[in-house]
């Protein structure tokens, strides 16, 4: 099935690019940290026989324009709102930091009828510390991207637990090798780790901006499915537990044996077909 690329303009004039595939009701996938619209191509393909799937690039990535000064989650909500309006969509899938955007958007955008939220990184009672961000920002400002990526990985608990016992110099060397290998094999339009590294600042700021504000989401009227993976870091499970309590009618699913990358393409360790099955069940009701 052919994929198309299109563009629109958000409220503040920023260009937002997106990819489109499939046929049926519109469904928007909002990617997470260290990802772009290309990160969920296989998930979109698995949904494309029932839905018209839209894959926007969030700001600072791929097809879309840059972040502006004093960026806040309001801008991300405006960007999602622009895509919803432009495409006539009513369904959203938010992944990791993208789930935070979808949560906030569901409070203010009545056009969202159904929202699937995978591993939203809401911080509940200090469930994860942001102390590492000062070091990360310093390393980014110095152009030391390998160190910044290691700092973010450890701070966000994204690597295997054994990485906590591996010397930083070795993690930095492995990261440098990964970046070099990726850039050597990069295809046209691909968004590399080097390009994505500075965007981590904005993704973690979403978590800090919404820290301990989760009770607000009890006012969401859209139908919600809360999705997580059994091997994801504990703070994602804490967030899902908190949301389940204030969204008593939300459906809850945990993917046994999968990790935080479950929604991504298979070449990055994802299991998108498994996730797509549950998304299809949720969104097809009432079609």
TrEMBL record:
Pfam families: Abhydrolase_1 (PF00561). Residues 27-121 form the AB hydrolase-1 domain. SUPFAM superfamilies: alpha/beta-Hydrolases (SSF53474). This is Pimeloyl-ACP methyl ester carboxylesterase. It comes from Bacillus oleivorans.
């Amino acid at each position: 099935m052919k994929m198309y690329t299109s563009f629109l303009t958000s409220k503040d004039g920023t260009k937002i690019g997106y990819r489109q595939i499939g046929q049926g009701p519109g469904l928007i996938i909002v990617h997470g940290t260290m990802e772009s619209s290309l990160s969920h191509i296989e998930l979109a393909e698995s949904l494309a026989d029932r839905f018209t799937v839209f894959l926007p690039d969030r700001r600072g990535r791929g097809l879309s324009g840059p972040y502006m000064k004093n960026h806040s989650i309001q801008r991300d909500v405006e960007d999602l709102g622009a895509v919803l309006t432009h495409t006539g969509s009513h369904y959203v899938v938010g992944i990791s930091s993208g789930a935070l955007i979808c949560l906030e958007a569901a409070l203010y955008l009545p056009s969202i009828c159904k929202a699937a939220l995978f591993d939203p990184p809401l911080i509940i009672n200090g469930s994860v510390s942001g102390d590492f961000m000062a070091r990360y920002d310093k390393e980014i400002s110095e152009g030391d991207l390998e160190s910044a990526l290691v700092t973010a990985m450890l701070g966000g608990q994204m690597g295997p637990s054994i990485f906590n016992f591996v010397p930083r110099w070795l993690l930095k060397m492995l990261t440098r090798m990964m970046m070099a290998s990726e850039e050597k094999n990069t295809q046209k339009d691909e968004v590399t780790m080097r390009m994505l590294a500075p965007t981590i600042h904005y993704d973690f700021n979403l978590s800090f901006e919404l820290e301990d504000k989760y009770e607000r989401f009890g006012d969401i009227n859209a139908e919600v499915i809360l999705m997580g993976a059994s091997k994801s870091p504990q703070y994602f499970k804490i967030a899902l537990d908190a949301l389940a309590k204030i969204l008593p009618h939300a459906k809850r699913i945990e993917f046994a044996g999968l990790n935080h990358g479950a929604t991504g393409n298979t070449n990055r360790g994802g299991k998108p077909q498994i996730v797509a099955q549950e998304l299809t069940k949720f969104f097809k009701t009432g079609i």
